Amino acid sequence: MQVSIHQLPHAIGLELPTYATPHAAGMDLRAAIPADEIWSLEPGQRRLVPTGLVMAIPDGFEGQVRPRSGLALRHGVTVLNAPGTIDSDYRGEVAVVLANHGQNSFELRRGERIAQLLIAPVAVCEWSLETTSAALGETHRGAGGYGSTGKV
């Protein structure tokens, strides 16, 4: 699949999203912050980090912005609204909401890999309103909610 992408002026010189390995599901997104700045993300703080990218995701697909496991493990830094969704009709700059759940300040520099981007298919549904919940059919689980499948 080919996806059209544009780099805004503040992203010129940064790598486009890339797969780290041939079998990786996600592509790395990079921070498009000024080269002469270091952004600090304090414990408990969240910040919108620009990528400098605008893309045209094809109809029937979405972009999923997900955390990077290394940042989460080593620093407690994650994508706050994970997974974030980039709709196929969005044409603004892709930005990532990072949150520091760690105990130490996290320093962010230009070009640092901050999140992963997956392009995934989207199923579009139409609702069929039923008059009773019994019309939905029975299952073994039934109405069992949180934690119900782990009970003996």
Write a brief structural summary.
By secondary structure, the chain is mainly beta. The chain is built from one helix and eleven strands, in the order E-E-E-E-E-E-H-E-E-E-E-E. The protein has a domain at 4-10 and 25-123: Deoxyuridine triphosphatase (dUTPase) (Deoxyuridine 5'-Triphosphate Nucleotidohydrolase, Chain A, Distorted Sandwich).
Written description of the protein model:
This protein is mainly beta. The protein has a domain at 4-10 and 25-123: Deoxyuridine 5'-Triphosphate Nucleotidohydrolase, Chain A, CATH 2.70.40.10. The chain contains 1 helix and 11 strands; from the N terminus they run E-E-E-E-E-E-H-E-E-E-E-E. It has one helix at residues 69-75, and strands spanning 4-7, 18-19, 27-30, 39-41, 46-56, 61-66, 77-79, 84-86, 94-100, 106-108, 113-121. The strands form 3 sheets. Strands 2-3-11-6-8 form a 5-stranded antiparallel sheet, with no helix packed on it. A hairpin with a 7-residue loop joins strand 2 and strand 3 (27-30). The relative contact order is 0.24.
